[in-house]
């Protein structure tokens, strides 16, 4: 039963992901007859530039400190306290915005829409963690990202998930990343922000759906360490790729591994690669055949993915406001108990001809067609390369952190008896 | 196996750990309770709709009925304020609960982390070796493939379920921005909101050019008929404008269905229906329907031959379930209408069809299943090139206008009314043309060109069946268990007089400049002075009557349910001109052509002529 707990939690978690929280403006503005004038709607002023710079400085300093704690001090406790600071600053003080995860969308939108003014802070939050990762691995995830910090805090009884679940769920972030980029590039929506589970907690204003979603993530996080980071985070995909090429990644042992196996179960994220010294039991010819197959399979999967997802472009485009409005206008109107959609009411009162909506929607639809081809190719390639990487084996004699999936949290460091962590003799 | 680095060798440490454990458990329990309360609060907020409670609705209805009641107004405001306060209090509770939950969890986490620190134990070597690397690798590959296949299958299922050829329909809509052509895909139809005024102006020229030319079958499918054409025909329920007045001449006043006297022809109607005939030139149109079949019939006015009958069939978007109606209403109670170019019919399931004069389908549409416990019965009417539909259903009253040529919506106005079985009436007040509708609780007037509200008066209640009558700037509205009201049109409208001695629940009243004739469904006819409500006479025929009276050549024609036509002059004194019998029961209102009356009996259609 205990072994099944993580699976059960994951099932609940993803069932909740399917729920759509929605808000209803139940209270219309009062209709005053006494000449009262409704106050003008005010937009909140943007954060002062100097404070934005302060955020960037705090980010840079935090990453430097965490990197130092991981690589030099090799201190799990230090990383823990640093993550608490990040949670307090980037989470509760800055209320989860701006964050590196959401910055993906700002960058994408800026690339596809020249009129969009990209804040420097967004660029910094997007780029700095990537650069730091390229040099030192995912120390950003270890102690700077508030999302990781809040999940790490509740990870009391982490359980192993097994190869199947890790493999299947580990593919979700690619889909999420692809969709987030597609919707940002087509100026449709910032889905990472819309479905951000923790911002509602940081701001104490979560909608019911998001409250349940975040609660489920955190409760499941007791048994499944960092479920969001591992199975949803789109930024994690980028960090994973870059970290594979990191210049100086954290190691479990500071000197030579003595093969004591103490660290084998230390990683709650299944991110420690076991030593591979045995020869592949498959014959050489079989392996070569499989490799050739993979060489053909990767481009095939890329095209298949593109073709498959491109069939869905109309469905995907439904999120776009213009397409949604055009679709509503094209549908035969049926009197129902439901009030008219506010978008339709707004459109009617705008005096804009429907032909313009159709034309704009048509353009967006074409963008979605191209975008969904790209998305599908990306997903096909991701699946293909995941398969390919599982064909290629690097023989290694020691327990090493997987550079892609390791969050550099330094938990395993505490388990290594080499280099100053020798066990205190048992007094009993 | 693991061993403790900091064993609980000290009694103090053990006590601290024990205390922390209790605090953690207590905090966790309080967090769970808070979580539950917040969830309940959320659900409460979501389900509650305080501004739309039954009490509020009743009060607002009362307010509509009596707008001058200041005390009631104040009460509504107080309830409104209380509802808003309750809402914001709940919001405050959720927010405060959120803070408490946060601090409970924080305490719990701090305690657990402290216990971990105090009870930190040394790592142990796993008892068993991990699964073989190569097997794990293989399993991983297998599951990548499974996931990929699942994604592809999921994508295709989603495509099948949601694909709508949206791109194609958008392209068609863009190519035809003026919506001159109908464009269809799947179950949807392209339509556009338009400025009706511009289009109407453009067509006015066309109409003037056509002027009085009567067309045997509409060859010019654009435009709309002139007033002369309209009054020369009988294009809708209760004649031109739905006002109960026929402009035809040489109308017969004696016949006998049994002997065949003055019966020009008699034609059996394949399917039953309570809709009344309409006439355009030499063609008569009616509909018939059963629970599963709906048909439109075109009959030659001169011979009675069914020229064509159109099976309406399955219209895209039509509900799969048949409508629930009562026997007295049936499945095709609404009368058709025509603009001389096309004929239009609506059925009890909301199916709407436009046909040309040769029976070819021009467009179809389903307006959604009418939420109507007796069955939809409001007849159609034309205003210029607009097809007007009164669609007052349970919970969603509305009136809409569709372009006759394409079925696209020109305008729609939502109405805060209950279900109505009455039909729209179009009148010309001399200053403007008005579309007048009756439904509990209002008589409401709209500009038929754009649906703009002109005026309304709260003076009717109950299940409204009779349509209004109009003459000389006065609208007459009546309903059973309500009252008869005479409303002088103006800004604002003025209630001239009221009476409640005789009321009608089905037949509509008939107004001339001087008189108002009210017919009850139990067969009593009452004549009032239209200006002041003075009762001139009442006549009890003692036979149930569902048909509405029609004025033709100064005489009132009223058909009772037994098929006897009561003909009497529209005068201050009742005097029977004749009571010819059809020989067959009828619930339908007669239609008139020059020298002819078309009567729909329970089973047959009759043409009476001299």
Topology overview:
The complex is a heterodimer of chains A (428) and B (610).
Chain A lengths: L4 H13 L31 H25 L2 H18 L6 H13 L7 H17 L2 H5 L2 H8 L8 H8 L2 H14 L5 H4 L4 H5 L4 H13 L6 H5 L2 H10 L28 E2 L10 H28 L1 H5 L3 H10 L11 H9 L3 H36 L10 E2 L9 H5 L13
Antiparallel strand pairs in A: 1-2
Chain B lengths: L10 H37 L6 H12 L4 H49 L14 H30 L3 H10 L8 E2 L2 E2 L6 H15 L16 H5 L13 E2 L16 E6 L9 E3 L2 E7 L4 E7 L5 E6 L25 E2 L3 E5 L4 E6 L4 E6 L14 E3 L2 E5 L6 E7 L5 E7 L9 E4 L4 E7 L2 E5 L6 E6 L10 E3 L2 E5 L5 E5 L5 E6 L10 E2 L3 E5 L4 E6 L5 E6 L9 E3 L2 E5 L5 E5 L21 E3 L2 E5 L3 E6 L1
Helix pairs in contact in B: 1-3, 2-3
Poorly predicted regions of chain B: 1-8, 177-220
User: What is the CATH topology of the largest domain in chain B?
Assistant: Methylamine Dehydrogenase, Chain H
Structural class of chain B: alpha+beta
Averaged pLDDT of chain B, please? 84
Oligomer: heterodimer
Strand order of the largest sheet of chain A: 1-2
Unreliable runs of chain A, pLDDT <50, ≥5 residues?
A: 17-26, 422-428
The Rg value of chain B, from CA coordinates, equals 35 Å
Integer average pLDDT of chain A: 85
Number of domains of chain A: 2
Query: Gap between N and C termini of chain A, in Å?
Result: 34 Å
Q: What is the number of E strands of chain B?
A: 34
Number of domains of chain B: 2
Percent helix range of chain B: 25-40%
Main beta sheet of chain A, described?
2 strands, antiparallel
Rounded Rg of chain A = 25 Å
Distance between the termini of chain B: 115 Å
The count of β-strands of chain A is: 2
Cα shape of chain B: elongated
């Amino acid at each position: 039963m205990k072994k099944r707990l993580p699976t059960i939690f994951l099932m609940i978690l993803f069932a909740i992901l399917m729920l759509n929280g929605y808000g209803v403006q139940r209270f219309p503005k009062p209709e005053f007859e006494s000449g009262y004038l409704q106050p003008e709607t005010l937009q909140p002023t943007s954060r002062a530039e100097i404070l934005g710079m302060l955020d960037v400085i705090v980010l840079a300093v935090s990453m430097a400190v965490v990197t130092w704690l991981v690589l030099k001090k090799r201190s799990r406790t230090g990383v823990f306290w640093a993550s608490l600071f990040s949670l307090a600053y980037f989470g509760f003080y800055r209320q989860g915005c701006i964050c590196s995860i959401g910055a993906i969308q700002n960058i994408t939108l800026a690339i596809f829409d020249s009129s969009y003014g990209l804040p420097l802070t967004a660029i910094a939050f997007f780029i700095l963690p990537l650069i730091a990762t390229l040099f030192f691995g995912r120390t950003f995830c270890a102690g700077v990202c508030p999302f990781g910090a809040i999940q790490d805090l509740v990870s009391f009884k982490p359980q192993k998930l097994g190869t199947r679940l890790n493999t299947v769920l580990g593919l979700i972030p690619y889909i999420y990343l692809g969709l987030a980029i597609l919707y940002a590039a087509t100026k449709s929506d910032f889905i990472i922000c819309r479905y951000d589970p923790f911002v509602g907690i940081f701001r104490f204003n979560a909608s019911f759906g998001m409250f349940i979603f975040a609660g489920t993530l955190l409760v499941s996080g007791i048994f499944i360490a960092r479920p969001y980071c591992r199975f949803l985070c789109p930024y994690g995909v980028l960090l994973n790729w870059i970290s594979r090429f990191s210049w100086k990644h954290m190691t479990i042992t500071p000197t030579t591994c003595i093969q004591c196996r103490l660290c084998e179960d230390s990683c709650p994220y299944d991110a420690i690669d076991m030593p591979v010294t045995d020869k592949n039991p498959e014959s050489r010819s079989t392996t070569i055949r499989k490799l050739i197959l993979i060489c053909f399979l990767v481009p095939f999967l890329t095209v298949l993915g593109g073709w498959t997802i491109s069939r869905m472009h109309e469905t995907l485009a439904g999120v776009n406001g213009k397409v949604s409005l055009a679709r509503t206008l094209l549908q035969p109107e049926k009197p129902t108990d439901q009030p008219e959609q506010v978008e339709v009411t707004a459109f009617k009162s705008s005096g804009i001809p429907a032909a313009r909506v159709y034309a704009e929607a048509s353009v967006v639809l074409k963008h979605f067609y191209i975008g969904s081809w790209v998305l599908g190719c990306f997903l096909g390639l991701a699946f293909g390369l995941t398969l390919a990487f599982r064909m290629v084996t690097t023989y290694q004699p020691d327990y090493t952190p997987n550079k892609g999936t390791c969050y550099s949290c330094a938990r395993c460091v505490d388990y290594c008896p080499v280099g100053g962590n020798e066990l205190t003799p048992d007094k009993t | 196996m693991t061993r403790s680095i900091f064993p609980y060798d000290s009694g103090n440490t053990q006590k601290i750990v024990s205390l922390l454990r209790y605090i953690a458990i207590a905090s966790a329990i309080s967090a769970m309770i808070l979580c539950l309360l917040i969830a309940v609060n959320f659900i409460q907020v979501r389900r509650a709709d305080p501004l739309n409670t039954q009490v509020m609705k009743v009060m607002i209805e009362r307010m509509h009925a009596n707008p001058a009641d200041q005390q009631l107004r104040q009460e509504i405001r107080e309830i409104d304020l209380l509802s808003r306060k309750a809402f914001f209090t709940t919001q405050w509770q959720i927010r405060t609960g959120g803070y408490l939950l946060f601090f409970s969890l924080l305490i719990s986490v701090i305690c657990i982390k402290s216990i971990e620190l105090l009870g930190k134990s040394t790592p142990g070597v796993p008892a068993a070796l991990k699964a073989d690397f190569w097997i794990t690798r293989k399993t991983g590959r297998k599951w990548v493939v499974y996931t990929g296949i699942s994604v592809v299958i999921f994508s295709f299922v989603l495509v099948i379920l949601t694909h709508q050829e949206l791109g194609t329909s958008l392209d068609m809509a863009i190519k035809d921005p003026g919506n001159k052509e109908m464009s269809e895909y799947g179950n949807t139809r392209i339509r556009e909101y338009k400025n009706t005024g511009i289009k109407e102006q453009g067509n006015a020229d066309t109409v003037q050019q056509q002027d009085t030319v009567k067309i045997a079958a509409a060859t010019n499918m654009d435009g709309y008929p002139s007033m002369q054409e309209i009054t020369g025909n009988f294009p809708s329920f209760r004649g031109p404008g739905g006002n109960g007045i026929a402009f035809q001449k040489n109308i017969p006043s004696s016949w006998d269905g049994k002997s065949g006297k003055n019966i020009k022809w008699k034609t059996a109607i394949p399917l039953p229906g309570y809709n009344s005939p309409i006439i355009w030139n030499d063609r008569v149109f009616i509909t018939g329907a059963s629970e599963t079949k709906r048909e439109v019939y075109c009959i030659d006015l001169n011979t009675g031959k069914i020229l064509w009958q159109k099976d309406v069939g399955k219209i895209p978007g039509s509900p799969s379930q048949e409508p629930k109606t009562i026997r007295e209403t049936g499945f095709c109670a609404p009368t058709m209408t025509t603009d001389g170019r096309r004929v239009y019919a609506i059925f009890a399931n909301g199916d709407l069809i436009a046909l040309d004069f040769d029976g070819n389908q021009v467009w179809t549409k389903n307006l959604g299943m009418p939420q109507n416990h007796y069955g939809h019965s409001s007849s159609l009417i034309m205003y210029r090139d607009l097809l007007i539909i009164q669609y007052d259903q349970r919970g969603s009253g509305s009136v809409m206008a569709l372009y006759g040529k394409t079925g696209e919506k020109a305008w729609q106005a939502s109405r805060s009314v209950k279900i109505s079985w009455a039909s729209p009436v179009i009148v010309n007040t001399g200053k403007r043309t008005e579309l007048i509708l009756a439904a509990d609780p209002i008589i409401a007037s709209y500009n038929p060109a754009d649906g703009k509200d002109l005026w309304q008066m709260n003076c009717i209640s109950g299940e409204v069946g009779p349509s209004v009558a109009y003459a000389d700037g006065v609208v007459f509205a009546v309903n059973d268990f309500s009252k008869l009201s005479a409303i002088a049109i103006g800004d604002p409208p003025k209630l001239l007089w009221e009476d409640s001695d005789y009321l009608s629940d089905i037949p509509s009243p008939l107004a001339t400049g001087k008189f108002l004739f009210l017919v009850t469904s139990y067969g009593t006819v009452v004549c009032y002075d239209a200006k002041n409500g003075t009762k001139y006479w009442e006549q009890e025929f003692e036979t149930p009557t569902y048909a509405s009276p029609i004025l033709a050549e100064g005489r009132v024609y009223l058909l009772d349910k037994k098929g006897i036509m009561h003909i009497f002059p529209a005068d201050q004194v009742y005097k029977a001109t004749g009571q010819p019998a059809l020989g067959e029961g009828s619930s339908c209102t007669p239609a008139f052509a020059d020298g002819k009356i078309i009567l729909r009996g329970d089973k047959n259609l009759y043409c009476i002529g001299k």
